[in-house]
């Protein structure tokens, strides 16, 4: 009579020893989708040559760093130039200078304005004076020009746009000021008169640059509480005239006072 084989317990293959009472069998941990994805990606990333990608990333980072550095250096240079200009253009006090001394001071400041100061230096002065202006002090564009010229140590203080035009036309007739007749002769620092209606000049600004016959100019608008940059193409009817800032214009009424003294 054959003996029946003894059956082994079902946990035999997994554990040779019988688990203790009260302890549950450990279940296998299910890996998260992120870990599975990471494992899948790591297996394939090793097969790719990442040298070209690394080179491109390095070039992009290097270009960004260089452009940031250049921008910082440019900003620092403008600030230093601004400080230098402020040291040069100190206000002239009548009690401290004779007419002859004031005349020499005005000639020096005019030479700096027309021959030395760059368009970016003029722009930095304009921005500093009118980016955070008290709008109550600057009601019109001519007020901005008067304040800007005082900052640049000029004696030219027109009362209105029409007053300025009258003075400029008078100086032009005597050959002491040039009215620009082509865009090629327009320079940074020139005064531009704008009309919003034909034959009705009402706005004035400082020329910043000329590009492709477009006259870029800086101005102040009381309605928007700040400064701005605008441009019109040469020949546009909005441009009434562009005037040179001559020494006679710069001196203002100084010539009249000198002539009275010399009589």
Task: Outline the structure in words.
- The chain is built from eight helices and five strands.
- It is an alpha+beta fold and 263 residues long.
- The protein has a domain at 89-262: endopeptidase fold (from Nostoc punctiforme) (Alpha-Beta Complex).
- The chain has a five-stranded antiparallel beta sheet.
- Helix 4 packs across helix 5.
- Residues 11-15 and 84-95 have low confidence and may be disordered.
Secondary structure elements and pairings:
Elements: H1 33-45, H2 51-88, H3 99-116, H4 119-130, H5 141-151, H6 161-173, E1 191-197, E2 200-211, E3 214-221, E4 226-233, E5 239-243, H7 247-251, H8 254-262
Antiparallel strand pairs: 1-2, 1-5, 2-3, 3-4
Helix pairs in contact: 2-4, 4-5
Helix content: 40-55%
SSE string = HHHHHHEEEEEHH
What distance separates the N and C termini? 157 Å
Query: What is the CATH domain class of the domain at 89-262?
Result: Alpha Beta
Main sheet: which strands, in order across? 4-3-2-1-5
What percent of residues are in strands? 15-25%
- What is the fold-level CATH name, i.e. the topology of the domain at 89-262? endopeptidase fold (from Nostoc punctiforme)
CATH superfamily of the domain at 89-262: endopeptidase domain like (from Nostoc punctiforme)
Radius of gyration: 38 Å
Number of helices: 8
Given helix and strand content, the structural type is alpha+beta
Shape type: elongated
Low-confidence stretches: 11-15, 84-95
How is the main sheet built?
5 strands, antiparallel
| Average pLDDT, all residues | 76
Annotation, overall tally of beta strands: 5
Question: What CATH architecture of the domain at 89-262 would you give?
Answer: Alpha-Beta Complex
């Amino acid at each position: 009579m054959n003996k029946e084989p003894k059956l082994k317990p079902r946990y035999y293959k997994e554990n040779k020893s019988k688990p203790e009472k009260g302890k549950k069998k450990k279940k296998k941990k299910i890996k998260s989708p992120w870990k599975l994805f990471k494992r899948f990606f790591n297996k394939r990333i090793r097969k790719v040559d990442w040298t070209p990608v690394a080179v491109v990333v390095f070039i992009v980072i290097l270009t960004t760093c260089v452009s940031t550095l250049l921008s910082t250096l440019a900003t620092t240079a403008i600030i230093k130039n601004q400080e230098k200009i402020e040291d040069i253009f100190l206000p002239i006090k009548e009690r401290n200078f004779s007419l002859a001394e004031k005349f020499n001071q005005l000639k020096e400041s005019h030479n700096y304005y027309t021959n030395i100061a760059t368009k970016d230096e003029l722009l930095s002065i304009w921005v500093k004076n009118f980016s955070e202006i008290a709008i109550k002090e600057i009601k019109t564009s001519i007020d901005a020009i008067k304040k800007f010229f005082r900052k640049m140590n000029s004696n030219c203080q027109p009362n209105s746009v029409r007053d300025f035009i009258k003075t400029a036309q008078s100086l032009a007739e005597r050959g002491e000021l040039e009215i620009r007749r082509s865009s090629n002769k327009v320079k940074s620092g020139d005064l531009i008169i704008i009309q919003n209606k034909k034959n009705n000049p009402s706005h004035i600004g400082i020329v910043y640059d000329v590009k492709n016959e477009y006259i870029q100019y800086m101005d102040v608008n009381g309605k928007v509480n700040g400064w701005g940059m605008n441009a019109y193409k040469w020949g546009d009817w909005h441009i009434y005239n562009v005037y040179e800032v001559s020494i006679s214009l710069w001196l203002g009424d100084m010539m009249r006072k000198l002539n009275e003294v010399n009589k």
